[in-house]
Amino acid sequence: NQLFVSNYSNVQPHSGVNANLAVYLSVLNCGDRILSMNLRDGGHLSHGHKQNLSGRYYEIHTYTVDPETEMIDYENVRKLAKATRPKLIIAGASSYSRLIDFKKFRDIADEVSAYLMADTAHIAGLMVTGYHPSSINVADFTTATTHKTLRGPRGGLIIADKKYAGLIDKSVFPGIQGGPLMHIIAAKAVAFREALKDSFKDYSRRIIENSKALCEYMKNEGFRIVSGGTDNHLFLIDLTSKELTGYEAVGTLSSVGIIINKNVILFDKLDPIITSGIRIG
């Protein structure tokens, strides 16, 4: 709570997906509507993909990025929210390289009387050090993983106002999980302690500097960067003009010890198993 400046948190979720599912279970009923980012635009599988429980149990509506800027069009999100009247709006992504304005999402959620959940799995470490706008005390629920930019063990967590404590606690256990993994929770505590240090803030700053530097280098080498750049720890490369698929790029790079993700991109014509893009970071 000291790290995130909140009055309630639950550190038991085994993963970010479990944290998301616990939030859904706490405030939604089967068939309720969710508005989330489209997977091809940067969203996550747990935000409504048909192979995930979220896509099977809830009515999913999605917003997209602007086709020109490849960034979130908040006015379009507002229009979709008013048209679909979701019970929950999800702000957050798995492969989006730009800053997310959680306050704009809050305004939209308030206009349609929806809950707002911020999935900060990728950016939590940047958020607590001030290098990304915070969702804490803005969103009703903030979920995160502890093994990405928080630099901790594999796991998840949920941050919310203490008025939701009872709902969240029983949704985590016995709702979606059994007993807590105490050794992982201890490791999370170590990671949180490290994240409070000045050295961690410097670490976060250098992550973004390195991401921007590599992104600029790839642009200069003739690669098209989705949205034209990055504000955080990752960026997407469109390989279409290189006549190379994401699947092929991953295979080639892994053979020399460089591990990256193949990734769908906006208007991707290839199968998600193949993809036209890669995610670095």
UniProtKB/TrEMBL annotation:
The record's CDD domains line, in alphabetical order, gives: SHMT
Q: Where is the Serine hydroxymethyltransferase-like domain?
A: 8-281
Identify which cofactors the protein needs according to its UniProt entry.
pyridoxal 5'-phosphate
Q: Does the keyword ATP-binding apply?
A: no
User: Could you mention a single GO BP entry for this protein?
Assistant: tetrahydrofolate interconversion
Kindly state which keywords UniProt assigns to this record, in alphabetical order: One-carbon metabolism, Pyridoxal phosphate, Transferase
The answer to whether keyword Ubl conjugation applies is no
One GO MF annotation is:
pyridoxal phosphate binding
Gene Ontology annotations for the cellular component aspect, listed alphabetically: cytosol
Q: Which family does it belong to?
A: Belongs to the SHMT family.
Q: Please give the name of this protein.
A: Serine hydroxymethyltransferase-like domain-containing protein
Q: Provide the species name.
A: marine sediment metagenome
